[in-house]
Write a structure and sequence with these properties.
This protein is mainly alpha-helical. Helices cover 52% and strands 5% of the residues. Strand 1 and strand 2 form a beta hairpin.
Amino acid sequence: MEFLRRRGFGRVSFSPDMNAEWSERSLEELRASLARLRRAYRRMLLGPAPHYQLPTLFSMLERRGTGRRRCRNLALGPDGAYYACDRAMGFSAGKARGLRVGRPGRLDRAAREALLARAEAAVGALGWDAEPDFCPLGPFFHAELGREHAGPRLEAFRRLSELFSAALLGIIEDNRELPAYKALYEDVRVA
């Protein structure tokens, strides 16, 4: 990330594959990487500008600050169709037809809402809150479209989501009083 900062990038986004089934070893490697990022990000914010934003922090701040966690994403697929869930883009072309909700110029909002409500109900029936820090509907749709039981995939997602949330919240807590952090995340307006 330092490499990108030195080359003038003002935003560096990253996200683990939330649909993958992470092994314990992979989770430990990610935990160590996120700990290094946490320390490096603080050093960067304490140092001279320019500083870069982590856009994922905005998502965490919004969800934690507003309580609004319902998915507001819509994805335009490579086939030109709109999909109800951006996590459907992990499928090869044509495999996620059941998540299509329109084409440019024709968005079926009712179909999108029905798909999300059905998935939220199914996730809830498995004992899940449909509004954790990271949305479990993508892994649910992956399981459903892959014709597998959603439970194991959602359990893998839960472990990954908890690890990633804790790391991002740690970055926020470590830095929220720093002037550079405030300039990047609190004093900024997005047009």
